């Protein structure tokens, strides 16, 4: 039955219903099955069952959007899973059928209400993590769509607005690109409360010199926070939130700075609360090894959730073999949708079909697409090749025209990006000026840009409302994509802030990346993580040297109120 639902959804998506007959199944049976799954209390499989229930009703809602019975069961499923956003989008008027169900739903509704924003609700896993953020240390993980940073922001808002806290909070984010997004979100969350409660959001160490009499919310990369701790040793940090804490595992240039920041704060007489947030890893407690007095095996200091409020439907596009399959990850099987060998179809042809469909839709129903490439040159070349097609016309959009003009003036080497923007197409890569990247992101979020070509910056990038994600390689530059990176990348489509589901297309245009490669990656679970300081004891050497040099060079300046390390953070 589930195979048939996937197959019929794929026919609808690719507009093949006139060429191929949808498969018959009993709709009522499918809805009842989903309803049963949504009420699962299995000790190990409850999250998986609830996500499957959501997937079934989401797909059925796409196939039978006007069916009252589908709406009724969708309401029941999302109510049972505690997915308030899903309930709001699928059946906002749903009311539980029995008195007991209504009483329980009201109790859960009250329990999951966000204290600092009573119009919104947590998911159960979010609430569980939120309730631990006052612990001396806590480590939690979940799917990309769990909203890990949202939990942190709501906690800070509660502390400041409702509790009247006078503390300093530090959020470590992995990239400079994320600083602006997180900073803007915090400012939007708190609004006038920042000034009323005497708080400043700081994203550069040099800002602190002018604002020493305030309380702070620091949003910094680990390097910037390290420089802050060196240059401003008297500033207390009451909470340290390490977003993307999996950077403490594996090989990456920022890992050592995370370690040094934690090490310095652990040695302070006034220890902050340490909160680690990671995507998808099964053993978040591993990061508690950094706390010398914490027993890693204890369950009270960690949470590993697998529940996601959104779904991803996965497709295998083999343009070498000339076939398109939808992937059933419950049975680990491929279901043939179309043979395209004779037509010679390639990725750009598929993208053009999506754009042609957009042109027939009203603005609110148009879909947005991200295409991932493993390198800058390939992403730019693909964007240029797509834009050069005769069917891609300029949109005569004033906002796109304005950005195009500014790109022409600011980024002279990217004159073709200026032309692409006019057509609602962009590429998003690391070397673009931050101001240009931010404007591209905002125009994508608002629907003016409908297709964006990206590199691995997407893995640590902003929250974008993509309906479709095309993955063209299993590598990040020349490095094989890790299971954590792979799951994180897939999670970039289908974001609860924007939609309940997304489509992921695994593209094989060259023999080096086959459908079998992608299937193997889909079937490979994220392994237990290790601290890179354990697997590579020399990991701290580089940052230790920089740390010692900075202390030596800047010691005479530490007492100067105007001291700034801005030059180190460009």
UniProtKB/TrEMBL annotation:
Keyword line = ATP-binding, Helicase, Hydrolase, Nucleotide-binding
**Which ranges carry the Helicase ATP-binding domain?**
129-299
- Taxonomically, which superkingdom? Bacteria
Stored InterPro entries:
DEAD/DEAH_box_helicase_dom (IPR011545), Hel308_SKI2-like (IPR050474), Helicase_ATP-bd (IPR014001), Helicase_C-like (IPR001650), P-loop_NTPase (IPR027417)
> What positions does the domain Helicase C-terminal occupy?
346-539
Which GO molecular-function terms appear in the entry?
Answer: ATP binding; helicase activity; hydrolase activity; nucleic acid binding
Q: Does the keyword rRNA-binding apply?
A: no
Q: Which residues form a coiled coil?
A: none
Q: What is this protein called?
A: Ski2-like helicase
Q: Write down the species.
A: Robinsoniella peoriensis
């Amino acid at each position: 039955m589930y195979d048939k639902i996937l197959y019929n959804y794929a026919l609808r998506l690719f507009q093949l219903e006139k060429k191929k007959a949808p498969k018959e199944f009993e709709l009522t049976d499918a809805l009842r099955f989903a309803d049963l799954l949504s009420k699962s209390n299995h000790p190990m499989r409850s999250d998986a069952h609830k996500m499957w229930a959501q997937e079934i009703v989401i797909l059925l809602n796409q196939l039978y959007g006007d069916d009252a019975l589908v709406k009724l069961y969708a309401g029941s499923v999302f109510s049972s899973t505690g997915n308030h956003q899903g309930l709001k989008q699928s059946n906002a008027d749903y009311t539980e059928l029995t008195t007991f169900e209504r009483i329980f739903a009201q109790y859960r509704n009250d329990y999951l209400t966000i204290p600092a924003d009573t119009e919104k609700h947590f998911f159960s896993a979010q609430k569980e993590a939120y309730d631990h953020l006052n612990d001396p240390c806590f480590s939690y993980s979940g799917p990309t769509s769990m909203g890990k940073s949202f939990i942190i922001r709501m906690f800070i808002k509660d502390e400041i607005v409702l509790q009247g806290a006078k503390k300093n909070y530090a959020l470590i984010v992995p990239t400079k690109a994320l600083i602006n997004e997180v900073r803007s979100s915090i400012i939007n969350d708190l609004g006038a409360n920042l000034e009323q409660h005497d708080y400043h959001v700081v994203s550069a160490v040099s800002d602190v010199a002018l604002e020493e009499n305030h309380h702070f919310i620091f949003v910094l990369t680990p390097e910037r926070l390290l420089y802050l701790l060196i240059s401003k040793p008297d500033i207390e940090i009451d909470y340290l939130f390490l977003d993307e804490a999996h950077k403490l595992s594996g090989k990456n240039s920022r890992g050592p700075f995370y370690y040094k920041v934690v090490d310095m704060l652990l040695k302070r007489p006034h220890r902050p609360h340490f909160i680690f947030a990671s995507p998808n890893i099964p053993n978040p407690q591993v990061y508690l090894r950094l706390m010398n007095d914490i027993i890693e095996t204890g369950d009270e200091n960690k949470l590993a959730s697998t529940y996601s409020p959104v779904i991803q439907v996965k497709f295998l596009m083999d343009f070498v073999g000339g076939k398109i399959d939808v992937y059933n990850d419950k049975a680990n099987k491929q279901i043939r949708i179309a043979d395209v060998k004779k037509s010679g179809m390639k990725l750009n042809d598929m993208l053009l079909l999506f754009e042609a469909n957009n042109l027939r839709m009203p603005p609110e129903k148009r879909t947005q697409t991200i295409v991932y490439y493993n390198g800058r040159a390939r992403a730019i070349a693909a964007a240029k090749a797509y834009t050069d097609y005769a069917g891609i016309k300029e949109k005569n959009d004033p906002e796109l025209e304005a950005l195009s003009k500014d790109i022409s003036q600011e980024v002279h080497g990217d004159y073709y990006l200026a032309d692409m923007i006019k057509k609602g197409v962009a590429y998003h890569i690391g070397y673009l000026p931050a101001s240009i990247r931010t404007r591209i992101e905002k125009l994508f979020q608002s629907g003016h840009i409908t297709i964006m070509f990206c590199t691995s910056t997407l893995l640590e990038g902003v929250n974008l409302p993509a309906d479709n994600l095309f993955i063209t390689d299993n590598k990040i530059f020349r490095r094989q994509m890790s299971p954590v990176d792979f799951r994180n990348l897939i999670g970039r489509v289908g974001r609860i802030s924007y939609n309940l589901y997304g489509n992921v297309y695994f593209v094989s245009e060259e023999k080096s990346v086959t459908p079998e490669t992608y299937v193997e990656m889909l079937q490979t679970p994220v392994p237990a993580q290790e601290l890179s300081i354990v697997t590579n004891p020399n990991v701290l050497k580089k940052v230790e040297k920089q740390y010692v040099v900075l202390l030596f060079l800047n010691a005479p300046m530490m007492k100067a109120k105007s001291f700034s390390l801005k030059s180190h953070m460009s």
